[in-house]
Here is the input.
Amino acid sequence: MSNKTALKLKKPELLAPAGNLEKLKFAIHYGADAVYIGGKQFGLRSKAGNFSFEDMEEGVKFAKKYGAKVYVAANIIAHNENLEGAQSYFKKLYEIGISAVIIADPALITACRQAAPDLEIHISTQASITNWRTVQFWKNEGIPRVVLAREVSIKEVRQIKEKVDIELETFIHGAMCISYSGRCVLSNHMTSRDANRGGCAQSCRWKYDLYEDGVDESVNISEQNDEAYTMSSKDLSMVEHLPDLIDLGVDSLKIEGRMKSIHYVATVVNVYRKIIDSYVDNPKEFKMNQQWIDEIWKAAQRSLTTAFSYQEPTESDQLFGIPDRLPKYDFAGLVLAYDDRTKLATIQQRNSFKVGDEIEFFGPDFYHFKQTIQLIWDENDKPIEIAKHAMMMIKVKVDHPVNYYDMMRKGK
Amino acid sequence: MKYPELIVTARDIEEVKQLVNSGADAIRIGNQQYGLRVAGDFNLNEIEEATAYTHQHNRKIYVVTNAIFHNDSIDKLPNYLDCLLQIKIDGIICGDPSIFSILNDLNKSLAIHWNPETLATNHDTLAFWQSKGINRALLSNELGMDAVLEIKTKLEIPIEVQIHGMTCIFQSKRKLVTNYYNYINGTELMDMSQHSDKRLHLKQLKEPESNYPIFEDCNGTHVMSNEDLCMVDHIEPLINSGIDALRINGMMNSRKYNQRIVEIYRKAIDLCCEYPINYLSQIESMKREILEIQPVERILGTGFYFKEQIY
Here is the structure.
């Protein structure tokens, strides 16, 4: 955009996943403007921790202190028997102060509208919204925001933005369905687990043999080439391309991963927060910083791709053969307190670490430093060599000041 | 007893004629650019010819326009629909809400058979789409018999279900076959959509006998079910509850097979509606007849009609 200096860019919302209350707090503390969570019903991550109504209340209260919003994903494709209780569920969410619900199934839109007419509804990516007319349809239905399908390119997002005045939410980071989301029943057919109601067995990532069928016999191509057939996608990351999305006015940038760890959520949110702020505050001077990219890789669980953003994905956007080596880090400890006089940090152990380990502290606003663990004291101020018990409280001498919610990570 | 409509796919004009003569009440055809997983690609002239033929024989013709449309293709759809309207087809099969504004812009009405495939799984959802103007609901294949019957009792618009043939279980926009070949071949790039004659299937390694057909076209990559639905012995509850249309998917099967299958289901439906006792006594022989012509690599099953799902 040539006139970006003249035009004040709108800061998009940074939307992060929160699988449970603790993750919600970290996501928001590390800079998310909004988080999406799942309740005990109607959500697609039946194995994520998910929130009771009490947890939601506490989450909303916590978010309010930061001016952040909490959305609830209710994005199953419901069967008849799943509709029961939907109205009272949405009414309860509205009373709790949830800012919006993310819905894919029109039956749940109807239920939500009847029970809580003022509760905002966003259409989920599970509804496979891929063109401007469909977006216009939802706009006419009074929907303020749609989450676009992951198959929509940047160019198409721009066309949609130009044609329809509605909030657009797009994914910027995380794991992806390789099918059109919502259009895959591999899991149902292979394991009787319904993916559209939260039971996905990730059958697309399994290994298969591909056969070419001749008139008389079939040839096993996978065996011939000693390479299994698979349909696994690399994970999405727009870390190097956020300005493209911000320039065209995408309203909410979404990170996938309600099943991911606190370390993952904090790290990824921290990076995107930093990039969004750096770019919007001074687009003219903005330059990508290698440190931000390196940081993303510290949380990456698969190789990364920009998927459909710029071109149709090819074999290099899929996971074939031996996986690439990725940096692996453990969340070693959580800072609970810091004493400026003694330079001692009180830390809750999250993974084993010991004297001599190279570790890295990081906190919100991309605060970072590395050091070697010199001394560890246990709860009784007794020096120890290794912090090996989960959740044990220890003290560590730190080279720079740290704060509550800062995290300590260790290479594996 | 009300006769349900017997619908079957056709790959070309010749098959349209064959299947009309075998007893189909309606034929489902389409063009790949606008419709998903068509049995054969029909251009507008061929659609016109097929329409003329079916109408001469007092049968119906439905055209699939259920692609997952992106901006470029949705902008071509109004003109295509206008052409279909002039041909006077009997209905379109689609699953994208764009259709309502397009028909509105054209100021025309056309019977909309709603088929968002995996996304039509409960009565309230279909009631929502009914309020937007759909004229028929094609239910998801991943529903149990009880759910199908319950939806029928709660919905006013006609209900259609698939009763025979393969079903789609996966669609990606990506070229997942081409990508694999390119990966194993390294340098020699290929485009599978140029090899549409090539028949491929996947074997799930933990299921040694499995056979999931996979193919690529302009809509991406499609994986089809391991089994062919075969409900010839279970159509009675569907007919008794007033299900309005029963569909056979004949894609990838021989002409001879499709012809015979339509004849068998024609007989089954007629018996079930007219002489239910005779239907019951002939179930076994009809089932046996299907087994005799069934390709050896395609097992028969009842899909999700009698299967529990967990989640």
